[in-house]
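Morning - glutathione inputs below, output right after.
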Amino acid sequence: MQLYGRRSSINVQKVLWCLGELGLVQDVDYRCIDAGLQFGVVDTAAYRALNPNGLVPTLIDGEQVIWESNTILRYLAKTRGADHLLPLTAAGCSEVERWMDWQLGSLWATLRVAFLGLTRTPEPQRDYGAIRTSFGESARLLRIADEQLQTREYLALDRFTLADLVIALVTHRWYGLNDRFHALLSAQPEMPSLARWLDAQRMRPGFAVALG
Ligand SMILES: N[C@@H](CCC(=O)N[C@@H](CS)C(=O)NCC(=O)O)C(=O)O
């Protein structure tokens, strides 16, 4: 397999973590090709033929080209028989997929404004109103996960699944911003269950593959 994408991208990190969870090894089972931002590649005609969005990640597995990070995760789990990560039953699958959809459509869509504003936008051009709204609103969403985790070890099922993987990466980013820019952001209530759960996910070997 070939994975296109820069390692600083949260959506590429998801795929790297999943490959790690599956026991697949870089340069043995898959090859990484830097693409996006400073690496370019994504604007070439050859890349656009693979992924017309010009975004990363894109995974190539033989003849199959897959883009959209969560679709790549589902593809990997299904093709590698990893139903521990994504159950085969419609009911079990829905428990995991709702958090995956929530991650892309709600949580990351909300936090992305603060993340891009604080880490990619030069200070004079930052819209602090939008940044603080994004950060506070993403904290409100994370409190939903915190509440869920008050009585359980994992988000969706009684074991680690793709739901934990994708939400952990956004949560890791949220705490990263909170620590680094706390003087600029409004203080948020503690989320002890979420913090405990995140610490546990950070210990997984796949997390080091993604963020190492
Ligand atoms: N919904 C897409 C979003 C992909 C996306 O926005 N990727 C960003 C990086 S996180 C990107 O390619 N940015 C442009 C670049 O890196 O050049 C997915 O989940 O794969």
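Note: The first strand starts at residue 2 and ends at 4.

O.
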